[in-house]
Amino acid sequence: MLTLYCRRGGRIVAEQRVPGEPLPDGLVWADMLDPSSQDIQQIKQIAGIDVPTPEEMREIESSSRLYREGLALFMTASVINQIDTPAPETRAITFVLADGLLTTVRYATPTPFITFQSRIASQPELCASAEIAMVELLDAVVDRIADTLEGVDAEVGALSKAIFAPLGESGSRPQDYGEELKRIGLNAIRCSKVDESLVGLSRLLTFFDANMRMLGQKQVRVRIKDLQRDIISLMGYVERMSEKLQLLLDATLGMVNIQQNNIIKIFSVIAVVFLPPTLVASIYGMNFHLMPELDWNFGYPMALLLMLMSAVGPYFYFRRRGWL
């Protein structure tokens, strides 16, 4: 689907172009979502560019993601998508600046695009030019990353309280940390996806700034510098979040090990407690004729009492030593 955003009467108007109709006036941004062959032909006629394929967009080499063809700038970055779901991901999105027109090629709808489309309806100055539109769209992407990290920070705080909570009145902790481990893993993946997106955006902005310097776009370069500073600060934030998540992971695994050791200790104590009674029962269970206790009237209750005492003795000994 190809959507054209045009400046008309101080407003930004979105419309679908019918093939064969003349090009609308004030065209600033052409957004291509899951472009069809017809959409690709249209944008080739409008902007004179060849739309990269999904395979080309997924390439990770900088030379394949950031390049110039004639006067057109092709810039591809990984943008976080579905970050609040159990399956966070990054999707490659290509930004093309050619002849005063911003073209975006995407095969997903990340939240920043929805946010930017709603913002330009009330703030048409965000699309004053193709270059400004691109900077403001990237700003929406960075804002989304910042919101994601704030959510991860809140999740880390909640996990810390759950894992390091003091003992309750019953003196026991939850026996299963499976849910906490899943939450830690999910937030670690989110941080990984955010870091991947920030690295790509940093490279894109460096390339974009170098080309804007050659064109003398001072206003755009000021905004680019602001975004670069934001990205640097967010990279440091991601690193701290990753360290906290690693600490929580180590602590949770430590709690699990402690619980497993306690369970093993209980089984070991039970085994030791029942070992002496088993020994007594084994001795008197032997079928030898010359065993005096067999003919004794109090032999059976005495054997039971002996087994009971041999079990109770180790139990109280372990309690005294604090092993139970």
Globally, the shape reads rod-shaped
- Report the order of strands and helices: EEEHHHEEEEHHHHH
State the helicity in percent bands: 55-70%
How large is the count of helical segments?
8
Radius of gyration: 34 Å
Number of strands: 7
CATH topology title of the largest domain: Beta Polymerase, domain 2
The stretches of 5 or more residues where confidence is low (pLDDT under 50) are none
**Mind telling me the CATH class of the largest domain?**
Alpha Beta
Q: Mind telling me the CATH superfamily name of the largest domain?
A: CorA soluble domain-like
**How far apart lie the N and C ends?**
69 Å
Sheet of most strands = 7 strands, mixed
The average pLDDT is 85
Q: How many discrete domains?
A: 2
Beta-strand level of the residues, as a percent range? 15-25%
Strand order of the largest sheet: 2-1-3-7-6-5-4
Please state the second-level CATH architecture of the largest domain. Answer: 2-Layer Sandwich
Class by SSE composition = alpha+beta
Written overview of the protein:
The chain is of the alpha+beta class and 324 residues long. The protein has two domains: 2-259, Beta Polymerase, domain 2 (2-Layer Sandwich), CATH 3.30.460.20; 261-321, Methane Monooxygenase Hydroxylase, Chain G, domain 1. Helices cover 60% and strands 15% of the residues. The chain has helices spanning 37-47, 54-57, 62-65, 111-122, 130-163, 178-215, 218-284, 299-321, and strands at 2-8, 11-15, 27-33, 66-69, 72-81, 89-98, 101-106. Helix 6 runs antiparallel to helix 7 (218-284). It starts with a strand and ends with a helix.
